[in-house]
Amino acid sequence: MAEKEEKGEDGQVAEIEKKITEAFEVFDRESNKTVDVREIGCIVRSLGCFPTEAEVQELLEKIEVEEPGGFVHLEHFLPVMTKVLLDRRFRPIPEDVILHAFEALDENKCGYITKDDLVKHLTEGGEPFTQEEMEDMLAVALDPVTDTLHYRDYRTKLIVDETKTFPFNV
Amino acid sequence: ISAWFCSCPPAFKAAVLIQQWYRRHVARLEMRRRCTWRIFQSIEYSCEQDQIKLHNFFSYLMDQFTPSSSKERDFISRMFISGESYKEAELEKYCDYETIEVPDSYTGPHLSFPLLPDHATALLEAFQQKQQLHARYVLNLLHETRKHLKQLPNISHVSTCYSEEITVCGDLHGQLDDLFLIFYKNGLPSPSKSYVFNGDFVDRGKQSLEILVILFTFLLIYPKEVHLNRGNHEDHMVNLRYGFCAGLSVHGKKILRMFQNVFCWLPLATLIDQKVLIIHGGISDTTDLDMLEKIQRNRFVSVLRLKKRKESSGKPQIQAINGESESGTDAAPRLSLQPQSAQAPSTANRLEFSRWLRQTVQEQIDTCRRLVDISESEPEELTYSSMVDSETELYFLSELCQSFQVLDILWSDPMPQEGCRENKVRGGGCYFGPDVTERFLEKYSLQFLIRSHECKQEGYEFCHSRKVLTIFSASNYYEIGSNRGAYVKLGPDLIPHFVQYQANKTAHLLTMTQRISRVEESAFRALREKLFAHTSALISAFKSYDRDNTGKIALSNWATAVESVLRLGLPWRMLRPQLVRSAEDGMLEYKSWLDDLAMEQRSQEHIQSSLLEVIYRNRSNLETIFRIIDRDHSGLISFEEFQQTWKLFSSHMNIELTDDGINDLVRSIDFNKDGNIDFNEFLEAFRLVRQGPSDDTCFPAGVPLLW
Question: Residue B148's pLDDT is what?
Fold first, then answer.
């Protein structure tokens, strides 16, 4: 993030807080500075972070969640999230790391993964995808003729999309 | 966590990484989707606000403009009397259809009355093949529709015991494909299939006329099963603005007149089993169903055309322009334009009115007082005895109350917060909270409300603890892929069942990413247009952050500045990457940024750029005004009329322009020298603006001056 020197710490923090507030308000359906707790993961990710589900949970434990209904107030979210951004936690996954990850699932090192293997790994291993998540990914990623995922192409495609809309150079 | 993670097998770790990365991607998409939605909605509602500004412009004219010549007087009165009322006989004569001949060469459907199901089928097939219905039949249909609507009450009562299921549809906005989809999926109206269409049949979409023809046809064939509610777009002023008037043919004038006189007769609400109320917009804390049942709904040709004013003495005076009168005699209760010379209502109406008045006097006083906010007046003034003397004034007050009743029904939106406040975003109606809903439902022993008026991504949405249901039937409303449409079915148990659809096949095939991108592109194009239209104001705002005149502004300040000018309430920092291509050191060179925006938007013509900017910003208002002037809807207005209008408009908007500026402008339009302007071309020229080569007129004129 490149802010001018003279702005200093305070300026940086203020700007971060504004960004967080904006992202928060996009999900604030009732315009009352609260969001559904289930949207927190989405908000954190759209601020440029790449947390795992476990890390999102960890974060939520630090934030007070109001019952009933499971709502999170902006005033509780803001300090926690500001620290996350200042500490530069949950950094983006570098391109080569993702490539290696796909390669790890490609046992025969042929440059692609079959649909069945992909489904097995991602719905049974790691932090399993829901059926909906899996279907959505397959819809874009899979080559319908061969039912395989050519991961280099897929990764490139998504990365281009990302850089176009990555709002924060944090 | 990390220690445990390292001890996992590689496949597991890989899965975690991929999932992590993918979930980030999905979250970004979701954010983009929501931001896009926000953009469209904020622009749409700010347009509706413009509508109110426009009508304030007319009021301003009424206040300020003292016609010096008869010509000018004519001109002004023409602008305002376009909603003039017609007595029955006049209407028949003026909008007659019998003299219109249908040529042998006409291959479209023929209608004869009374209508039969075959006619409906023929129409559906014809419209599917992009044929048109001959003007004679359109007019005939409109006359018959009007006759039918006149005998309907303000609130239609429907029962589920006659037709097991009732289907309720929301806004269609001229999107014929959606109506076809609904009929395809749900079946045509019939004795065993009831429908309620909840307003906003017209405007925006290209096939408003076809939709009206189909709906009116079914209305006449199955009067017990088909019910129409009026929406805020079934309103003359709104039609002029949103383009319903464009594209009507030779007999367009007659047809348009008839529409005015049909729309005002549309019922205001539908009540199912006395338990579910269907209205187009919503309610307010003063909505009174009993009053709504009693008012003469046809008087409100355009609910936007009224204005409340207070004289310096503090006593309220009301000017209202209403639609057609009921009485066949000469003394129609038409209110004049000048406050002083307000005419007394006709004898017949006066008696009727007094009778009604005596029945509900105190209630009316309280309601009117609340609505009109006459807190400045002495309470004693508003006793019954004082009103007997100023019955005329009370008449106007009551007119106002009634107008507000209708306005609220057609324009209001629900809000999550409690209470009831003015709907400043739309410029009409209220925002009503869950407490208002609760009280209203209790007062009239209702179970829930169904309304439309707002576009919803899934075609429907509940709020106020499922007591208010919004149903919206125009899919892809903002752009292909922007939203689904839906309709709701209610059986005797009154449990809603929803059916969703999207009228464009390709929308299904597009992936979520592609759909979002497409809609997003559209949204940002609209947003860039808006930014361009406010160039001068933006420069001023940026300069206030750039005291040292470096030509740069910090990105963080950019967001604040833009919001202060545009006031759209958008998350500018989230939207920035799509709007600002490059910034060094977190600083933006705003001049070149605005130039880039302008590059997309300029005209070929050598038109003075500040004028261009102004026109661009106001083009939809101008369009509306021009359409009013062009009374025969031919697309031509005289040069003089153009000049006059522009003068009035610019003086109201405080735009400084020389006559030369106007003349240059007009000359640059290729109009034939017979003194007529093809204003469609004129407006088109400003819609698609492209940059001419070279020179200083590259910049909005404001820029060189400031630099």
Answer: 95
Q: Which residues contact B592 (CB under 8 A, 6 or more apart)?
A: none
| B511 close to A (CB below 8 A) | yes
Token look-up 């304030």 returns: B56
Name the residue type at position A48. Answer: G
CA dist A28 and B569 (Å) reads 13
Distance of CA B564 to the CA centre of its chain: 25
Residue numbers of B annotated as active site: 233
Q: Is B2 on the interface with A (CB under 8 A)?
A: no
Element (H, E) at B308: strand B306-310
C-alpha to C-alpha distances, B149 to A75, B143, B228, B339, nearest whole angstrom: 55, 10, 9, 33
Q: How far is B229 from chain A (nearest CA, A)?
A: 28
Torsion of CA B126, B131, B132, B134, to 10 degrees: -80
- B636-638 vs B676-678, strand pairing mode: antiparallel
**Crossing angle of the two packed helices B555-566 and A8-26, in degrees rounded to 10:** 50
Asked if B234 and B200 count as a contact pair (C-beta separation under 8 A), the reply is yes
Q: Test B14 with A29 for CB contact under 8 angstroms.
A: no
Q: How far from chain centre, in Å, is Cα B443?
A: 30
With beta carbons under 8 A apart, name residues in chain B contacting A54.
1
Q: Is residue B376 within 8 Å of residue B394, measured between CB atoms?
A: no
Q: Cβ of B513 and A161 within 8 Å?
A: yes
Strand B552-554 to B485-490 pairing: unpaired
- Collapsing DSSP to helix, strand or coil, A36 comes out as strand
Q: Is B421 on the interface with A (CB under 8 A)?
A: no
Q: Are strands B276-278 and B496-501 parallel, antiparallel or unpaired?
A: unpaired
Read off the pLDDT of residues B583-624 as tens digits, 9 standing for 90 and up: 777 788 888 888 888 776 654 333 445 555 666 666 666 666
| Residue B61, pLDDT score | 52
Kindly report, residue by residue over B380-393, the tens digit of the pLDDT: 333 433 333 345 55
Distance CA B2, CA B4 (A): 5
Q: Rounded to whole angstroms, what are the CA distances from B258 to A143, B254, B255, B351, B518?
A: 57, 6, 5, 30, 39
Encode pLDDT of B289-299 as tens digits. Answer: 998 998 888 87
Among residues A108, A109, A104, the alpha carbon closest in space to that of A122 is found at A104
DSSP label of B193: B
Tokens of A5: 């020197």
